[in-house]
Amino acid sequence: MSLSHAAYRRALRVMPGGNTRTSNFEKPHPTYLVCGSGAYVTDVDGRRYLDFQNNFTTLIHGYGHPSVVDAIRRQAGLGLSFAGPTVAEIELAELLVERVSYFEQIRFTNTGSEAVMIAIKAARAYTGRDLIAKCDGAYHGNYDVVEANVTTPPLAGTERPTPKGEHSGVARSALSDCLIIPFNDIERTRKIIESAADRLAAIVVDPLPSRIGLIAISADYLTFLRNFTLRNSSLLIFDQVLSFRLGYGGAPVAKPNFPDLCAIGKIIGGGLPIGAVAGRTDIMAVFDPARADRACVIHSGTFTANPLSMAAGLAAMTALPRSEFDRLNVLGAQARSLIAEAFASVGINGTVTGEGSLFRLFVGPEQVASYADTFAAAHDPRLRSVVARMRERKVLLSSIGLGALSTPMTGTDIAYLAETLEEALRSLKSEPT
Prior knowledge:
The protein is α/β, with parallel strands linked by helices. It contains 14 helices and 14 strands. It has helices spanning 3-14, 54-57, 66-78, 87-99, 112-127, 172-175, 186-193, 219-231, 281-284, 307-318, 322-346, 371-378, 382-392, 411-430; strands at 33-37, 40-43, 48-51, 105-109, 131-135, 178-181, 200-205, 235-239, 261-265, 275-279, 350-353, 358-363, 395-396, 402-404. The longest helix is centred in the C-terminal third of the chain and has 25 residues, at 322-346. Pfam families: Aminotran_3. InterPro entries: Aminotrans_3, PyrdxlP-dep_Trfase, PyrdxlP-dep_Trfase_major, PyrdxlP-dep_Trfase_small. Its cofactor is pyridoxal 5'-phosphate. This is Aminotransferase class III-fold pyridoxal phosphate-dependent enzyme. GO terms for molecular function: transaminase activity.
């Protein structure tokens, strides 16, 4: 019995399903990790892997970045958390506001899910409306109103769809305030949201939604959403919890289409728990407890803006100048090119999507351009087989084929990724059908 298997058996006795994150669930058991260094992690059985999971895209510097580790140690010596604010949160807020032109003020949270949640609450307070629109197949965390139609079959027709909760814990009452729209489809979206325009508080959209397939939002669709919200006094909310790693100022977007609010997280915490909402000063004012003349959103949290996360985040973001984003994005383009070549070389149909330092591979389809394509491909068992075979060869990807680069990686690591994928595909092809 492996030590990972033994750990899983222990976990089953004290945790439902043996885990605390559903995303970690695997059969017959997950791989338990014990340490990381640079671009590599080591499991409890001593096996060392090249890690393209990076805690689900969070660890843009991989493991053990000296500046981040030093910042955590220094802050730990001063204090782990306080009841009062610290200068560290001001410093990280200042850095983020300086980098992103449409960030005027920031509110920190503990997770990306919480960031989306309070952005939605801010939109409701600011507009006085309740209805929230989100895209079919998009994931926006664990807040009931947007925890709908994440893995359900894609929309059909142009009638207003009935939202479907992602699991039985989603309140049916919350779903009545959710409107599902098709990503990158202007005409079908228009027909769905026009009849509800007077009740719409906000549209939440991810510029590069991972669950939809790491397909970028089209410029025309974004322009349509921006114009619609402006015309109908609704807000446009970006969810860049994952896609903020695409560039120095997050996902690139033209000035006329800047969102009103943006939820971010993951890379801004240096590997520690964090999230944030940023946006226009007049909207962010709903969080100001000193303003009694308008609606106020009460938002607190024992560990919100905790100094460890602030210090780690400041160090991590400071170590990401424009040049480092550019270098990482060049490596990302190289990875996607070599992945495509691997499919062609082996003669198995497949494709790769993504931008910047992100990629997602698919086995089966030659093109993935919509959530319908992604949904169909997700049910091909060959993908999980390829991911498992790559893990056997000491390369880690997420179970859906999602990968994220980290700054310690070089062209050698990207070449090894492609080589390992090609070996996994050849092994798959040699099996009897």
